[in-house]
């Protein structure tokens, strides 16, 4: 049937990302790149290297999913229109006199609009990745989840890896692994949901799910940006899940594990500094153990 | 003909790895992972990251050989049965109350049994890798050797690389390259032997070779575990080989090379600390050279 | 028509690289490897690892282009003749008594001849890479440029990456990215030119272009080796280009960007130490920002 709701969601799920949403995605990614200390200096000193970094920031998720599926990581270079778009935005952002773009981007409404549109592209990437992975592995639902996750949130991994090679050694990059960012958590959740929908385990049509998930993404992102909180929404959900899966051992677990039990019990997301501290402690321990 | 010996080896070479030997392999790999400092804390703080690390430890060799042959590194995720098996073992090992598994694993007989069965899987992996590589490159015997080696002993390389990305920076990881572990040495030897057998340069049937090589692997591994020595068996073999190939120059070689000649003359394996010390010296030298 | 000039260039463009030019390429690459501190010691201590490093130095560009096109990185191992050639040269260079090869190589004419022949192989690699990439992506000229570049000058990236994994951590490796070496600059230029020729945007026959570009490469390389300058020829070209593309903003750019503007205005290549210093400053800045 064609209720107005179905018509709306169907029309929404058919909107093309190309001109405007991609621009928003490139704009947000490249502004985040420019915020990195030294990025502007690199752009002035060696534009070629800066351009490569910009491309990695714009197309990192696609590159990672290509690597994971053994496809040419350079495929994104064959899409000349998007490359031209991203390159021109990179050029404008980094070499515009008086930093006009940064000036304009510093207004909150612009940031909200761009971030919201970027979140929309995330849904499309997840769905595209799952469909793509399904063309390789029929009912390989684990592969579908990972590919959808990689294409949706793999950019950070690629850029961290690139900075590791470049020599900007930052041990904070392990935080990306030890404690997933809110974006990667939400993308993983969406990838799981869309995979279940794709394998017909969820009785909901794809365009409805895309609409609802996008609404969820945009609203949470904008609320997070307005109420400058890093990660709020998933903490209770994580708590229940971690309690359900790993919590019941905590009564039995020996006292020496109690210390690690605390952070996971009061929310994986809400304690950012502690895990890193622990990890560095562990690294220290290891090094001392190795050296002695 | 079907002598009892042939029947035995044939039956042995047809045993399936799936339920029990794979379990032993996962058990040994994951216990080694849990022994790493900080691994248990990571499992409590971020189960997803710990699960990925566990999968890398269980399927690292296959992933590496997939990468080297440009196949999807995620293929191992399509084999749901093994993933489920490894995941459940990971769950039991890391989240079992009172650490019952670690308690039971701490008994020497259990460790010996598990380690012996893990060595059996090594033979199967080498043979599988060589057959797989041969399907790509007819008489590309170098590729066959490398793929057999990668699938048999590539797990350590993958896990070292993963720790490097994660930010656990440990310069000891170069030891894995500078001085190969006993496992990688023995796997390389087996890969060479099985490749020669596969290219009909060795007049021995494959099931006999598999039986003998497995016996050799298991016995050496168990003797090494009982007589807690790290590497014994190959030292004389290496000596003769290194003398044969590189030794004859040592009479002529100039005095400044004499210093490096010493360790290789008394066994590559038997001097673990010296190479690292030298290497770090070299690194220091390089850095000073670069800076001045 | 067949003017003598055309005959000459056609005959030149048909010369096979195999026996002699490849030998020169392996010789130059492996001598550069031996010059690295600690390389000789590694060769004596662990020949297998040293052999792998040597292969990476000899075939790095091909490996990188294979990875970028999702082809088996091990394909170069299937070409047994070149492997045998490179291995024997590696053996002679590293294990020849009295270092006879290094002695002979220390004469300037020998170095000039070998370096000149190595530059000839660079042209062949670029053309081969572009033709290969074109077989994948019709009129994907960006991919063609990158593949030609990777095959021509990707060896340094592969070897840097290998040293990074091995644990020889050298922050100078970022210089390879921040400030491209002269070789990579010239290879990028050639890759662009040959791609335009291949897409019929340059009205010059391929064999003429190959001849002229090779002459340019060899002459600049030899002049650079004689007048021990690191990079001279491209500085003015880069200046004009960077002025044309990014220079016009420098009048408008705010005073705080003036500081970064200076180095790019007086030649990207001619200030080697400054970028690194800046970068390390930036890294420091980042770390302080992160920690506070």
Automatic annotation (TrEMBL), chains A, B, C:
Reaction(s) this enzyme catalyzes, per UniProt: K(+)(in) = K(+)(out)
Compositionally biased spans, kind Polar residues: 262-273
Record flagged with keyword Transmembrane helix: yes
Membrane-protein topology: Multi-pass membrane protein
GO molecular function: identical protein binding; potassium channel activity
Compartments, record wording: Endoplasmic reticulum membrane
Sorted UniProt keywords: Endoplasmic reticulum, Ion channel, Ion transport, Membrane, Potassium, Potassium channel, Potassium transport, Transmembrane, Transmembrane helix, Transport
One GO CC annotation: endoplasmic reticulum membrane
Transmembrane stretches, start-end: 51-70, 82-101
Stretches the record annotates as Disordered: 257-292
Pfam families: TRIC (PF05197)
InterPro entries in UniProt: TRIC_channel (IPR007866)
Function recorded in the entry: Intracellular monovalent cation channel required for maintenance of rapid intracellular calcium release. Acts as a potassium counter-ion channel that functions in synchronization with calcium release from intracellular stores. Activated by increased cytosolic Ca(2+) levels.
Family recorded in the similarity comment: Belongs to the TMEM38 family.
Protein name: Fukutin
Source species of the chain: Oryctolagus cuniculus
Lineage: Eukaryota, Metazoa, Chordata, Craniata, Vertebrata
Gene (UniProt): FKTN
């Amino acid at each position: 049937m064609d209720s107005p709701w179905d018509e709306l969601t169907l029309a929404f799920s058919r909107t093309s990302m190309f001109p405007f949403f991609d621009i928003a995605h490139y704009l947000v990614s490249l502004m985040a790149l420019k915020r990195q200390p030294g990025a502007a200096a690199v752009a002035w000193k060696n534009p070629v290297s800066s351009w490569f970094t910009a491309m990695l920031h714009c197309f990192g998720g696609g590159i990672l999913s290509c690597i994971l599926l053994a496809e040419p990581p350079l495929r994104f270079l064959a899409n000349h229109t998007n490359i031209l778009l991203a390159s021109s935005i990179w050029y404008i952002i980094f070499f515009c006199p008086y930093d006009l773009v940064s000036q304009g981007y510093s207004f909150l409404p612009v940031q909200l609009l761009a971030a919201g549109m970027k979140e929309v592209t995330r849904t499309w990437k997840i769905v595209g990745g799952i469909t793509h992975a399904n063309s390789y592995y029929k009912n390989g639902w684990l592969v579908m989840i990972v590919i959808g996750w990689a294409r949706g949130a793999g950019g950070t991994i690629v850029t961290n890896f690139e900075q590791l090679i470049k020599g900007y050694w930052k041990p904070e990059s392990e935080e990306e692994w030890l404690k997933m960012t809110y974006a990667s958590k939400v993308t993983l959740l969406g990838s799981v949901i869309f995979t279940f929908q794709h394998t017909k385990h969820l009785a909901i049509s794809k365009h409805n799910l895309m609409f609802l998930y996008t609404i969820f993404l945009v609203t949470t992102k904008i609320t997070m940006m307005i109420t400058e909180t890093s990660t709020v929404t998933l903490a209770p959900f994580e708590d229940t899940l971690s309690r359900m899966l790993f919590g019941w051992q905590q009564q039995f677990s020996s006292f020496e594990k109690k210390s690690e039990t605390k952070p996971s019990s009061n929310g994986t997301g809400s304690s950012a500094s502690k895990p890193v501290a622990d990890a560095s402690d562990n690294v220290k321990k290891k090094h001392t153990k190795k050296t002695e």
